[in-house]
Write a structure and sequence with these properties.
heterodimer, A: about 190 residues, mainly alpha, Rna Polymerase Sigma Factor, Chain: A, Arc Repressor Mutant, subunit A, B: about 450 residues, mainly beta, 3 domains, seven-stranded antiparallel beta sheet, 4 helices, 31 strands, elongated, disordered C terminus
Chain lengths: ~190, ~450
């Protein structure tokens, strides 16, 4: 089923759209949620919440890419759930750096510039930054920070060690920071 | 703010999301590796395999416009090659076919990726009853079939060498199952980038860029750094990467990234081929600057408890939350580099290891030229358990810190643990304006 058909169903308040969403993007959203939460059960709940959010937001929203829209909502829900869970449990299980933490290192310690930023402006700058990257680097960035793929999987796909992967990601983040600073966004 | 940046990445353009579908990254990496193999096979390996007895004379490169060269003198001025991507011979992918002229006539080197391997050679019996072994891949020229005089397969790449062939630019390759593919060889001797460029800096360090393809402006590179190679012999893996900033004749700049050199304990270095960005092609180069070189030594992915002679392995009892202990563990002390742990604190941030990297009097390092990072690992050794945990370098506080959540360590206070060096990463800063950098020159 195409995005256009699903959108039409959503606007018509046709509940079969939810099944269509599950079929089209369930795997994608489940993967993202699993990468953040590390729990299949939590990921399942997160994905169900995603369908609910989409149902509530469309209409009036008309996203140009339903996959990107669904993924964005899943990421947001998953990270919120992650924060809530770790705050409640003081969770010590994670010995890996999360993509969230990696991006956070770009932010100045004082945080004062953050208030004047809008996510949309940042997203526009990040889009422009991505356009400057070589295809493989761009794919890596998106897979790590949008799809939230774990380093082990990315290193295997690239045929490199995790150490090399971290060096490469670190360099990309430095370039992103330099780019955002040049745009006066950091 | 952190959430906002995370959200911003979540809002990136849908076309980038779609572009990065499942499998896209692996596909891109595979394409790059294949491309790197093609170019390296066609250039460096061609020289290494073709020139028996010549290798001792010095480093051999393929330089468009010059041919295969030994340093600056042309050893093989005439080279024809085919490295079109994706051409197949049966199920195998043809990496490269290179024809070169030498004193004995013409030699052809063929590299296949994924060629089928047979346990026994193919035997052909002629009319007189003589049996002759024939290589699994042969070359057909003007109706004659030629067998390889040597072949070797490593990591999925099979190399075949055919000597004393007639000069021919449309050879047909044939595999053992009778599959045939005809390739077209073209001269690869003409290019405006027909030279080797080198950047030297410091006392004994250099990076030499070797253009591999004039038509596509693709480079490989070789790093000269005795210290890196010396340390690499003691490590499991060593990686290096560098970025060159290129200023063109018209003042525009572009970058050439060379990365993922794997030394693997041997004094050999081979950067994968990297192409200049599309918009930098067909333009002259005014200057070339090595922007940064990062060398990452990986010492230990092994368990120090399980080997007979761990290099340096220190043990202590983990302090209670809010407490700390002074210590002086040397994690690494070779080649003028001394890496110490001087204190361990159990803080709200987690386990903080105060580390110090020093240069002794024999160190070749100049602190102005390098930035260092250390990574280490800890492992529990009570009850014979060997659970390992990583420690990462936190540049904001200049120490190693355990990877914990909300200040809670996965290891209980009082546990006897071991600490060992996992990695040492240093970055050259050759473009930094320091007097010690030496002269940046071009060969």
């Amino acid at each position: 089923m195409t995005d256009a058909t699903i959108m039409t169903q959503l606007h018509a308040r046709d509940e079969t759209a939810l099944a269509a969403l599950e079929q089209a993007y369930g795997r994608l959203c489940r993967s993202i949620a699993q990468n953040v939460l590390g729990s299949a059960e939590d990921a399942e709940e997160c994905v169900n919440d995603t369908w609910l959010r989409i149902w509530q937001s469309i209409p009036p929203a008309r996203p140009s890419s339903l996959s990107a829209y669904a993924g964005m909502i899943t990421r947001r829900l998953a990270i919120n759930r992650y924060h809530a869970a770790t705050a409640a449990r003081r969770d010590a299980r994670a010995v890996v750096t999360t993509p969230y933490d990696e991006l956070a290192e770009l932010i100045p310690a004082d945080g004062e510039v953050g208030d004047r930023l809008e996510a949309e402006a940042l997203a526009g700058a990040i889009n422009a930054f991505l356009a400057t990257l070589k295809t493989e680097d761009r794919l890596l960035f998106v897979r790590r920070y949008w799809y939230l793929d774990p380093p082990t999987a990315l290193a295997a796909q690239l045929g490199v060690s995790e150490n090399t992967l971290y060096v490469r990601l670190h360099r990309m983040r430095k370039r992103l920071r330099a780019y955002l600073e040049k745009q006066n966004l950091l | 703010m952190k959430d906002r940046l995370f959200d911003a990445v979540g809002m990136i353009d849908g076309r980038y999301i779609d572009e990065a579908h499942d499998g896209a990254l692996a596909e891109a990496a595979q394409k790059r590796r294949l491309r790197g193999r093609v170019l390296l096979a066609a250039a460096v390996l061609a020289a290494a395999l073709c020139i028996v007895g010549f290798a001792a004379a010095g480093r051999l490169y393929f330089a468009p416009g010059v041919g295969i060269v030994d340093e600056e003198s042309a050893a093989f001025p005439q080279v024809w090659a085919c490295y079109d991507e994706g051409i197949k011979l049966g199920d195998a992918i043809i990496d490269a076919v290179v024809l070169s002229e030498d004193e004995e006539g013409y030699t052809m080197n063929i590299w296949l990726y994924g060629a089928k391997l047979y346990p026994e050679p193919r035997i052909v019996t002629d009319e007189m009853g003589n049996e002759t072994p024939i290589s699994d891949v042969t070359v057909c020229i003007d109706g004659e079939e030629y067998s390889a005089q040597g072949s070797k397969t490593s990591k999925g790449v099979s190399a075949y060498v055919f000597k004393c062939l007639p000069k021919h630019f449309s050879p047909t390759l044939r595999d053992r199952e009778g599959n045939e593919t005809t390739v077209s060889l073209i001269s690869i001797g003409e290019s405006q980038y027909s030279y080797i460029r080198g950047i030297s800096f410091g006392k004994d360090k250099a990076i030499t860029a070797i253009p591999l393809s004039g038509s596509e402006n693709v480079f490989t590179a070789q790093l000269t750094d005795p210290l890196t190679f010396t340390i690499a012999q003691e490590t499991q893996k060593t990686y290096a990467s560098c970025t060159w900033l290129i200023t063109h004749d018209d003042g525009q700049t572009s970058q050439l990234e060379l990365s993922e050199m794997v030394i693997d304990g041997k004094l050999q270095a081979g950067f994968s081929g990297s192409a200049l960005p599309q918009d930098s092609r067909d333009r002259g180069i005014r200057s070339l600057t090595a922007q940064m070189v990062v060398v990452s030594h990986n010492f230990a992915s092994y368990n120090p408890l399980l080997i007979d002679d761990p290099r340096q392995f220190c043990t202590f009892n983990l302090p209670e939350p809010g407490e700390g202990i002074d210590c002086d563990f040397i994690l690494y002390g070779h080649h003028g580099i001394v890496c110490r742990v001087t204190r361990i604190d159990y803080t709200e941030q987690g386990l903080v290891y105060t580390t110090k990297l020093e240069n002794d009097s024999t160190s070749p390092f100049s602190e102005e030229m390098y930035e260092f990072q250390i990574s280490a690992g800890i492992l529990t050794i009570e009850d014979g358990t060997t659970q390992q945990y990583g420690l990462t370098f936190d540049p904001s506080i200049g120490t190693l810190i355990s990877q914990t959540r909300d200040g809670v360590s996965p290891i209980a206070p009082g546990t006897e643990i071991g600490i060992y060096l996992r990695g040492l990463t240093y970055a050259y800063l050759p473009e930094a304006p320091a007097a010690d950098l030496g002269t940046i020159s071009f060969k």
